[in-house]
Design a protein that fits this description.
Layout (H helix, E strand, L loop, with lengths): L33 E8 L15 E6 L5 E8 L3 E10 L1 H11 L5 E6 L27 H4 L7 H5 L9 E6 L17 E2 L42 H10 L16 E6 L8 H11 L16 E4 L3 E2 L4 H12 L3 E5 L10 E2 L7 E6 L17 E4 L17 E6 L8 E6 L2 H18 L5 H10 L11 H4 L6 H9 L47 E3 L1
Parallel strand pairs: 6-8, 6-9, 7-8, 9-11, 11-13, 13-14
Antiparallel strand pairs: 1-4, 1-5, 2-3, 3-4, 10-12, 15-16, 16-17
């Protein structure tokens, strides 16, 4: 048996021989693009407003390239709002405004810029407490240094129930901050009857997590026992805890539906089970399992095994991508090279590492050229400073039960299992904005909109393209051409056929994706009421 630990996987492919290059982009160009200007005239020319007709070409004023402007409406006694032939980024619109302002009779030309509401969820554990150092709340979502900029993303979309996210993990248990109406019928692919622990040995239709507690030496000589992790619940909480409901935490996607699939139990899980579960999650037939009536758009695999990517893993990944599934894999927590950990070293997966709250690379994360992006996973400060720089991690859902489920809890956990979950949730929000995105284009946009590393301990050879920026990624999803060019660096992922979610065959949609993986470390887990 291969011991696997939790991760999120986003699979994509690339047409053979096609070189793709990420293009630096104005990350506000999609969301803040405008098609309108405000023109105000000098007193002697204000009469020109009278000759303008709604939705008609504006007489006497053209763009430098000769194209016409359309009159929309009057603006005070000396001005008008006009429409440009196309939507422009703020910078491009300002250049046009500056050129128009030089024409005779025009006093000023202003960009009719876009404004948006600022959404802040009312979940009590979301904001920092009175002492933000000791009680940072869900810092990984909003802090400037290492956060993923969720407030800006939520202003664009809070998700769609049409998007399904599969969580392949230890299964699922109820929680007061997890809406059962959003949890779809999943499946239990865990086949080891000796360690199944759920009362129905082998595979069955109930993905409930019975607990994965072990005693010393149960998983092998010298292996210490551990309490139940409730890892599947914790990963699901990052993605889809009920948000803006005055309870506990805010999940990243307010509306996506969860497809829980149990592949891990006592002493890990088997490659054969995980490979079958990947196919099933994507809607493919698996012998002995019922049809999955809710194929996942995003597949979250918070798990890992040592060694090279097997053909069984790669074949399952490729098959799921052909179905249009985005698969996200974590980089791993062994503190080594990502090339030694699968499925993070498989082709056609997004690899995400982890950074600490202060922006430095997390000490435990696997690194290497296959890493695509990083997200906040937390890390213990060095040296320890419990007052001014206490241990930090990702706040998510958990359970107080040491062996079997007990009372609901929250947990502060470090690791790439939860950075991967963040990337999966961002991908699901991107698909709620634009459901025609192919898996390749989802990855391309995430990488192209990633922001610069906040600390010199990360660079592109260790940590990928940068820190995930959810707001910029959603803006890029709405207007992919504004952030990606015709090619992007393939990194270490290799090349295979890209499989779009919709009939989109432009090479702009193609990209190589490496694996993103994230792992819970039980020694770094803190449970709170």
């Amino acid at each position: 048996m291969v011991k696997l630990k939790s991760a999120v996987v986003m699979l994509v492919c690339l047409l053979p021989g096609l070189s793709v290059k990420a293009v630096p982009a104005d990350t506000t160009s999609a969301r803040f693009r405008t098609r309108q200007l405000i023109i105000q005239f000098e007193d002697s020319h204000a009469r020109r407003i009278q000759s303008a007709r709604r939705d008609q070409a504006l007489p006497g004023i053209v763009l430098p390239d000769g194209r016409e402007l359309k009159f929309l409406r009057r603006f005070d006694s000396h001005g008008m709002v006009v429409q440009l032939p196309e939507r422009l980024s703020p910078d491009a619109a300002q250049r046009v405004a500056d050129q128009l302002a030089t024409q005779p009779g025009i006093a000023t030309v202003a960009v009719d810029k876009r404004f948006f509401p600022a959404l802040v969820p009312n979940d009590p554990a979301y904001p920092p407490g009175a002492n933000a150092v000791q009680d940072p709340g869900q810092w990984h979502l909003f802090e400037d240094t290492a956060g993923i900029n969720m407030p800006g993303a939520w202003d664009q979309s809070t998700g769609s129930a049409a998007v399904v996210v599969a969580v392949l993990d230890t299964g699922i248990i109820p929680h007061r901050d997890l809406n059962p109406a959003r949890v779809l019928p999943g499946y239990d692919f865990f086949s080891d009857a000796a360690t199944d622990n759920d009362g129905t040995p082998g595979r069955d239709s109930d993905p409930a997590d019975p607990g994965d507690a072990t005693v010393d030496n149960e998983c092998g000589p010298g292996e210490p026992g551990e309490d139940s992790s409730w890892h599947g619940l914790s990963v699901a909480g990052v993605i889809a805890a009920e948000s803006d409901n005055n309870t506990d935490i805010a999940g990243i996607d307010f509306q996506a539906r969860l497809l829980p699939i149990r592949v891990l139990g006592k002493c890990g899980g088997a490659l054969s089970d995980v490979a079958d579960a990947i196919r099933w999650a994507a809607g493919l037939a698996v012998t002995g399992a019922p049809a999955n009536l809710n194929p996942a758009a995003v597949i979250n695999l918070s798990l890992s095994g040592v060694g090279p990517c097997s053909s069984q893993e790669q074949d399952a990944i490729n098959a799921a991508v052909r179905q249009g599934a985005v698969i996200v894999v974590a980089a791993g927590n062994e503190g080594g090279n990502i090339q030694d950990v699968s499925p993070a070293n498989c082709k056609n997966v997004i690899v995400a590492g982890a950074i600490a709250r202060d922006g430095r690379i997390s000490s435990y994360v696997n690194v290497g050229v296959n890493v695509d992006v990083v997200a906040p996973g937390g890390d213990d400060p060095n040296p320890p400073d419990p007052l001014n720089n206490p241990p930090n991690g990702v706040l998510t859902l958990s359970n107080f039960g040491a062996v079997t489920p007990a009372a609901d809890a929250l947990a502060i956990i470090q690791g790439t299992s939860f950075t991967a979950a963040q990337v999966s949730a961002v991908a699901s929000l991107m698909l709620s904005v634009n459901n025609t995105l192919s898996p390749a284009l989802v990855e391309n946009v995430i990488k192209a909109t990633a922001r610069a590393f906040p600390d010199a301990s990360c660079n592109t050879s260790l940590c990928g393209a940068g820190v995930v920026d959810a707001s910029a990624a959603l803006a890029g999803a709405a207007d992919p051409a504004s952030v990606v060019g015709s090619s992007t660096n393939s990194g270490g992922g290799g090349c295979v056929m890209a499989y779009p979610r919709a009939p989109l065959f432009d090479p702009v949609l193609l990209l190589v994706l490496a694996g993103l993986w994230q792992l819970r470390r039980s020694s770094l887990r803190t449970r709170v009421p």
